[in-house]
């Protein structure tokens, strides 16, 4: 093009293809070409978004040859393939991550500089796909990164929501939700596949008949058919040529949709039907526990599951052949129960469409699925009313009944006369309105079940799925969660990544996180400690700048400890315990303004489910306490409180590097694993935490002396609950606790309004289901110890270095290898381009 003078350097590397070349000159030329030919712009008139798109296409081009090659290798070698079925993928921005995984982050940055581009501004321009709520959705994204990196052939299946998780803004201290319009400016990372499309049926009735050979058959006559269209996103592994596929389905009215034939004269009705079809992939449900009975949610689940299973069958028939070997080609991992209907769907397709007898179909189905549980909270276990199922998925209900009938026969045979056990294990909860227990369907239909941290997996066996464990203990596993160090160290914290690489002498740790152990020998080295601290302070400064701009709070990165709790707002996660500590410190300072204390910035981030009143009130409380403290000159030199609006992957990447202290304070036994705990610790934060979820394993790894432990154990919690927990006694038995709670109700934080926070304080005093009051004193004592240690920098830095050095276990690469070896039996398949 003529807009920019051709680069002489670019001409010098002529043999390099402009779409694949990795040299600086090629990248520059490709960037200018893309800006011109794809965006139709030259530099002088390009908008920031044009500049971003040109960068995205330049990077995407470099993934495509690897993608095609991977597909070829996987196909010709008939590779056993993992299909990850997840209703959520919380991917985060692609551009920086893909640059890192391609290994061209540095050269691209230099190319950008030479083109006079503001590299950071380009990265900031990307709108992240927020197709998930929290930990579960982010785990799916980390696993996609690791699957490619450890070279496991895999397809991630999910939903291409038009609106992802809402954007959070804070108004007058309250959370306000804004719709997330991530597709507004187009998505350069996806490739639409209009020809890969499947019909999905809903409603109607079934017909039982006999075929020409007098075999009993079933026909499902639906009253609605929509179509699912594939949108593919390449997922490149780090430092390898493997590119896996993330295939997300968009709901559309079927192609055969015919206004004339189906809706004679009813034009309006026809348009309505089209809209109804498209509604199915419109919006992500923003609850991180299932809201009972939402018909559209069940439609969404079945929608993506049906498309995915049909796609797997198509792939199998195209490559391997007979469906009898389906389970040898594919393993399907169910990410919680959201895709559990897949068990019935595969049965239906094998029997009704492919004429397989029940026993054969069942053997294949059972051999195909594995199920990951992510919660023990009873209110978070998914059930669907039989009535809704009958209306929406009549054929699946029949199949579920039949699965249940055969399964309960087995139970009866095994436990003669134990009808209570039969009722407990049934796929149908008969108590108070019949409901289908999706977790039971997943367990019965899967050959392996796993929890996401050691404690959680134990509790699954002893409580939630005890009966199932007794019947088939060999099917129960633990795979402790992990997170990808590419996004959560290399991309988020380049300064720390650089320092680690320097200390280790190479960057092998990025693919083998156990290499971080090399840092251990330097933990006491004052030289490293000083640089370690510099890196942390620089990240804190970046965060402080951002928070000043976006939350209007000024924090001092030099003197203040950054104490951060970032996660979904939930009573069991106990953000209010954190707030009680802040109020205690505040009161101490007010009583003794000369108290020499360690300055702290208390930073929060997290979204509340829009319908979860108590969680929203906790946000309001945090912001109200912030307002009082930050404006009180008597204390605000020592403590400040900030709420980061719109905690998402992108903003998380600002928080993790900047934390000195990571708050992981859920009630023991409630947090299945947690993954934020790992992200913080990997970035050198020390953890204050309970013996819950993966905290236990983090503490084991980093050493008890490098972890701030407090609170009851899961066993103590259980005992207290059975003995009868009385929060009232704690409230009256600890005058500081009482005075902290009373300060909330006094109206100090609510401009004199004594009723605003009542629902919260009353609930604590009278019910306190997550035992905040019981752990209060232990938490405060622990926090005092933390402040003391923070005042001894050499000790703190040593602990911080050791935390990072011992985080090898928490790479999602390790998790994926465990799944691959112990559960999936899938071998890595390297790709050589
Ligand atoms: O899954 C979370 C758990 O609470 C964490 O302890 C765990 O670390 C992660 C990953 O295993 N669960 C969720 O995030 N759950 C949801 O987001 C969710 C979403 C929709 C419906 C139900 C739950």
Helix percentage: 40-55%
Q: Regarding CATH, which class of the largest domain?
A: Alpha Beta
Q: What is the number of domains?
A: 3
Overall average pLDDT: 95
Query: What's the tally of helices?
Result: 34
- Beta content comes to 15-25%
Widest β-sheet, arrangement of strands: 7-10-11-4-1-12-13-17-18
- Categorize the overall geometry: globular
Radius of gyration: 28 Å
The second-level CATH architecture of the largest domain is: 3-Layer(aba) Sandwich
CATH topology of the largest domain: Rossmann fold
The largest sheet, given as strand count, sense and whether it forms a barrel, is: 9 strands, mixed
Bound molecules: N-[(phenylcarbonyl)carbamoyl]-beta-D-glucopyranosylamine
Which class of secondary structure composition applies to the elements? Answer: alpha/beta
How far do the termini sit from each other? 30 Å
> Which ranges are low-confidence, i.e. pLDDT below 50, for 5 or more consecutive residues?
1-14
Tell how many strands the DSSP assignment holds.
24
Q: CATH superfamily of the largest domain, please? A: Glycogen Phosphorylase B
Question: Which helices and strands occur, and which strands form pairs?
Answer:
Elements: H1 8-12, H2 24-37, H3 48-76, E1 81-85, E2 89-90, H4 95-102, H5 105-114, H6 119-125, E3 130-131, H7 135-149, E4 154-159, E5 167-171, E6 174-178, E7 191-202, E8 205-210, E9 216-221, E10 224-236, E11 243-252, H8 259-262, H9 267-279, H10 295-319, H11 326-329, E12 330-335, H12 342-353, H13 358-368, E13 369-372, E14 383-385, H14 386-392, H15 394-414, H16 419-425, E15 428-429, E16 435-437, H17 438-445, E17 448-451, H18 454-464, H19 466-471, E18 476-478, H20 485-491, H21 494-504, H22 526-551, E19 561-566, H23 575-591, E20 600-605, H24 613-630, E21 639-644, H25 649-655, E22 661-664, H26 676-682, E23 686-689, H27 695-702, E24 708-709, H28 714-723, H29 727-733, H30 735-745, H31 758-766, H32 772-790, H33 793-805, H34 812-824
Parallel strand pairs: 1-4, 1-12, 4-11, 12-13, 13-17, 17-18, 19-20, 19-22, 20-21, 22-23, 23-24
Antiparallel strand pairs: 2-3, 5-6, 7-10, 8-9, 10-11, 14-16, 15-16
Helix pairs in contact: 2-3, 2-5, 3-4, 3-6, 4-20, 7-34, 10-12, 12-13, 12-15, 14-15, 22-33, 23-24, 23-30, 23-32, 29-30
Bound molecules: N-[(phenylcarbonyl)carbamoyl]-beta-D-glucopyranosylamine.
N-[(phenylcarbonyl)carbamoyl]-beta-D-glucopyranosylamine binds at residues 133-137, 139, 288-290, 374-375, 380, 452, 481, 671-675, 693.
EC number: 2.4.1.1
Modified residues (N6-(pyridoxal phosphate)lysine): 679
GO molecular function, one term: pyridoxal phosphate binding
């Amino acid at each position: 093009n003529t807009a920019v003078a051709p680069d002489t350097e670019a001409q010098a590397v002529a043999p390099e293809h402009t779409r694949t070349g990795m040299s600086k000159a090629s990248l520059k030329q490709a960037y200018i070409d893309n800006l011109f030919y794809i965006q139709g712009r030259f530099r002088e008139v390009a908008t920031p978004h044009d500049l971003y798109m040109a960068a995205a296409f330049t990077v995407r081009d470099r993934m495509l040859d690897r993608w095609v090659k991977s597909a070829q290798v996987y196909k010709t070698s008939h590779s056993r393939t993992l299909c990850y079925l997840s209703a959520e993928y919380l991917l985060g921005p692609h551009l920086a991550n893909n640059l890192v995984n391609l290994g061209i982050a540095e050269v691209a940055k230099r190319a950008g500089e030479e083109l006079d581009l503001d590299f950071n501004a380009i990265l900031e321009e990307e709108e992240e796909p927020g197709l998930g709520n929290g930990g579960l959705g982010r785990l799916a994204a980390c696993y996609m990164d690791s699957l490619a990196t450890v070279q496991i052939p895999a397809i991630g299946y999910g939903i291409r929501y038009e609106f992802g998780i809402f954007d959070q803004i804070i108004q007058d201290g309250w959370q306000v939700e804004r719709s997330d319009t991530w597709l507004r400016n187009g998505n350069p990372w996806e490739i639409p596949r209009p020809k890969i499309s499947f019909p999905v049926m809903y409603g109607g009735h079934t017909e039982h008949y006999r075929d020409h050979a007098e075999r009993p058959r079933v026909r499902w006559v639906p009253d609605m058919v929509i179509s699912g269209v594939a949108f593919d996103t390449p997922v490149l592994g780090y430092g390898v040529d493997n590119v896996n596929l993330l295939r997300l389905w968009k709901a559309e009215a079927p192609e055969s949709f015919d206004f004339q034939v189906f809706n004679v004269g009813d034009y309006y009705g026809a348009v309505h039907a089209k809209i109804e079809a498209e509604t199915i992939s419109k919006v992500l449900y923003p609850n991180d526990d299932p809201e009972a009975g939402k018909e559209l949610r069940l439609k969404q689940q079945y929608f993506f599951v049906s498309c995915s299973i049909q796609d797997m069958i198509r792939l199998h028939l195209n490559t391997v052949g007979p469906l009898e070997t389906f389970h040898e080609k594919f393993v399907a991992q169910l990410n919680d129960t959201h895709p559990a209907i897949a068990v019935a769907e595969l049965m239906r397709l094998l029997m009704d469409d492919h004429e397989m007898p029940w026993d054969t179909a069942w053997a294949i189905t059972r051999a195909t699925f594995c199920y990951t549980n992510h919660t023990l909270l009873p209110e978070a276990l998914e059930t669907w009313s039989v009535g809704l199922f009958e209306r929406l998925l009549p054929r699946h209900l029949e199949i579920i009944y039949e699965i249940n009938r055969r399964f309960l026969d087995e139970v009866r045979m095994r436990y003669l006369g134990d009808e209570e056990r039969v009722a407990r294990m049934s796929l149908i909860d008969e108590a108070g309105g019949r409901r289908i227990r999706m977790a039971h369907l997943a367990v019965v239909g899967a050959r392996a079940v796993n929890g996401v941290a050691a404690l959680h997996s134990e509790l699954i066996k002893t409580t939630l799925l005890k009966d199932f464990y007794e019947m088939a203990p060999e099917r129960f596993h633990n795979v402790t969660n992990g997170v990808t160090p590419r996004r959560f160290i290399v991309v988020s914290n380049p300064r720390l990544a650089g320092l680690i690489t320097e200390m280790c002498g190479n960057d092998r740790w990025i693919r083998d996180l156990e290499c971080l152990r090399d840092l251990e020998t330097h933990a006491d080295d004052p030289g490293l400690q000083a640089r370690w601290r510099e890196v942390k302070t620089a990240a804190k400064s970046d965060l402080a700048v951002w928070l000043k701009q976006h939350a209007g709070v000024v924090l001092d990165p030099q003197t203040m400890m950054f104490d951060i709790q970032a996660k979904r707002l939930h009573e069991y996660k106990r953000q209010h315990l954190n707030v009680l500590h802040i109020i205690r410190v505040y009161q101490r300072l007010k009583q003794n303004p000369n108290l020499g204390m360690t300055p702290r910035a208390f930073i929060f981030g997290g979204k509340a489910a829009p319908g979860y009143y108590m969680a929203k009130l906790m946000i309001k409380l945090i912001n109200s306490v912030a307002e009082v403290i930050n404006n009180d000159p008597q204390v605000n030199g020592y403590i400040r409180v900030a709420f980061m609006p719109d905690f998402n992957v992108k903003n998380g990447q600002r928080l993790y590097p900047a934390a000195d202290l990571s708050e992981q304070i859920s009630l023991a036994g409630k947090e299945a694993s947690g993954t934020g705990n790992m992200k913080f610790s990997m970035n050198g934060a020390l953890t204050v935490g309970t013996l819950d979820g993966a905290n236990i394993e983090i503490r084991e790894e980093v050493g008890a002396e490098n972890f701030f432990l407090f609170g009851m154990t899961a066993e103590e919690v259980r005992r207290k609950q059975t003995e009868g927990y009385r929060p009232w006694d704690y409230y009256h038995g600890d005058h500081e606790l009482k005075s902290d709670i009373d300060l909330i109700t006094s109206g100090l934080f609510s401009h004199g309004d004594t009723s605003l926070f009542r629902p919260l304080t009353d609930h604590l005093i009278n019910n306190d289901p997550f035992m905040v009051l019981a752990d209060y004193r232990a938490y405060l004592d622990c926090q005092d110890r933390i402040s003391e240690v923070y005042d001894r920098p050499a000790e703190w830095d040593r602990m911080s270095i050791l935390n990072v050095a011992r985080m090898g276990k928490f790479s999602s690469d390790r998790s994926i290898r465990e799944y691959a070896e112990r559960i999936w039996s899938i071998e890595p398949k390297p790709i050589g381009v």
